[in-house]
Amino acid sequence: MESNSKIYVAGHRGLVGSAIYKRLQEKGYSNIVFRTHKELDLTNSQAVAEFFETEKPEYVFLAAAKVGGIMANTTYRAQFIFENLQIQNNIIHQAYVNGAKKLLFLGSSCVYPKSAIQPIKEEYLLTDVLEYTNEPYAIAKIAGMKMCESYNLQYGTNFISVMPTNLFGPNDNFHLENSHVLPALLRKFHLCKLLENNDFKGIFEDLGYAADDDLFSENKQNALIYLDKHGIRIDKDDKVSLSIWGSGTPLREFLWSEDMADACIFIMETLDFKDLVNNEGRAEVRNTHINIGWGKEISIKDLALLIKDIVGFEGDIHFDITKPDGTLRKLLDVSRLENLGWTPSVELSDGIKRMYQIYKG
């Protein structure tokens, strides 16, 4: 990419897209185009076609997607598969039609089988069944990867897919029902700390409740009911505790989103699809995607304890084993990317501290 190349970042307001946009600017790329959801509905085929025909981006970062945690994936199964398929089909096809030089498609580590051998290598894709809770989302992402691969093989495009691990960072989603585990825990522990300090005005501000004195008692009760719904409770001894979904035993890998953005730009600057093809004497071309991760993992229990310590909450935590755990382990093998010369820089604890400061404003 040249400094004045026209670059389209789809999903520039999201966790990954905003990090990519910021990193591109830091590296001196000056011709970046983007649209908000209100300006361009990426599920609308005609609108996306008109945008590409008008703008003719040379490079495309496809970071737009409908995402969420276990609860969101379980509740909105139809939306997760439909909207993600629509978004990626429209953008990938129009990038081909309008002659984009290169496209980078953001997948997800949930595309790998539930029982995949750890750490997960790229070639383990489609070797076994998926985790049920996020199956619709995973199938959509697999379709996007195969679409890129297939367009490369049939049309000679230069579309690359990357599989990021669990990401966190600036512009993350902190919604108590629809967010991923790390930002959800960070916000819940923050609310626990406020409740522990009897800081209801702080709780009202976080939840968007009015702090007017005339409504204080009513909103205090409403806040306690809402917090209890999300596992934040006061016991009979007036001690605050947090109940967390699952057993706490699943292991997860996390990567700071700005590290992820740096890896994406590194790949766009240095690699082409042909560099990722390894037939090994076979006619088939497959598994040309690249894992992006840290290569380290932590249990949900230890993650909770780490966040608890960073926030400064002194109460108890409990694990609700009646709720699903999701995939028990999901560590990516990142040797392919390391061999290409890229490694991350932000440690998990440092990233969480940065994120908490951002959340508190």
Tell me about this structure.
Strand 7 and strand 8 form a beta hairpin. It is built from twelve helices and 14 strands. The protein is of the alpha/beta class and 361 residues long. The model has no long low-confidence stretch (mean pLDDT 93). The chain has a six-stranded parallel beta sheet, sandwiched between helices. Strands 7-8-13 form a three-stranded mixed beta sheet. The chain has a three-stranded mixed beta sheet with strand order 12-9-14. The longest helix has 21 residues, at 77-97. It has helices spanning 15-26, 45-55, 70-75, 77-97, 135-155, 181-196, 200-207, 216-229, 257-270, 300-311, 335-340, 348-360, and strands at 7-10, 32-33, 59-62, 102-106, 159-164, 166-168, 232-234, 240-245, 251-252, 254-256, 290-292, 298-299, 316-320, 329-330. 43% of the residues are buried. Helices cover 43% and strands 14% of the residues.
Oligomer: single chain
Strand content: 5-15%
Please tally the β strands and state the result: 14
What is the element string, with H for helices and E for strands? EHEHEHHEHEEHHHEEEEHEEHEEHH
Report the sheet with the most strands, covering strand number, pairing sense and barrel closure: 6 strands, parallel
Structural class: alpha/beta
Unreliable segments of 5+ consecutive residues: none
State the separation between the terminal residues, measured CA to CA.
35 Å
Secondary structure tally, helices:
12
Indicate the percent of residues in helices. 40-55%
Overall 3D geometry?
Answer: globular
Mean pLDDT over the full residue set: 93
Order of adjacent strands in the largest pleated sheet = 2-1-3-4-5-11
Radius of gyration: 21 Å
